[in-house]
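Quick question, first post here. What does this chain look like in 3D?
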Amino acid sequence: MNIKLARKQRLSAFRKIAIGTWQTAYDPTVYGTVELRMDRALDYMTAFRAKTGRRITVSHLAARAVAAAFRETPSANAILRFNRLYERRDVGVFFQVAIVDDGPEGIDLSGFVMHHVDEKSLAEICDEFQQKVDLVRSRKDAELERARRIMLRVPSFLLPWVLRTAAFFAYTLNLDMSFFGVPRDAFGSVMITNVGSLGLDVAYPPLVHYARLPMLIALGAIHDAAVVENGTVVAGKTMKVNVTFDHRFIDGVHAAAMAKTLKAWLERPFEHFDAT
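> Answer (accepted):
Ran it through. Tokens below.
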């Protein structure tokens, strides 16, 4: 079995219509942006580093906060199989990682998935993140390297067919394809990428049909901004969180609930993350 799943038995009329209307992840895309205050998050990161010595980033905070949002909105943490909705039992977060093969011209995008993020402490997330980044960048992740080698050998004209076929067996049929070089549950529930590290404020990653991700999140750069606090304009730090999601089973109600959780965790971090 590739993923532990439980079939959702009762669907609303709208959900059935949405599933029937959009047959693939090419067309049901919805985009949104929420701007968050980051002053307290930056204070928390400073305190966390001082206490633990760990190199914490906004991506770590966002991963744990997004996992909490999925935990509190389980119907958004789902995949479609034969037009039937299945909720995931695990909240997995996929992180993108840049690796260099042959200098700047050989930069490639790779990544890894971290499972059960909603059950992990921030310290555990930081440690696992660093271990996996080191494996990916040093090309020592055996499963990932095997998959990359296979993809590099596939002729370009066959690649779309190979990706669709692999996704069909791994997700639609829910079979363990690791024997064929396809990692188990390779993309998880959500992808997080930090475009702020590139100096960008807004970017919307595209839904990828073979990844079966219901949501992708791009974290923008943190900026100084004029914000209103208790009726007074003050200087503050803000960040845009940009979201792409699949409207077949995520709608405005889900997005609003998840945004509320994300806002609570990132704007009041001392109440939600590890004690400092």
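The chain has a mean pLDDT of 88.
The two ends are 40 Å apart (CA to CA).
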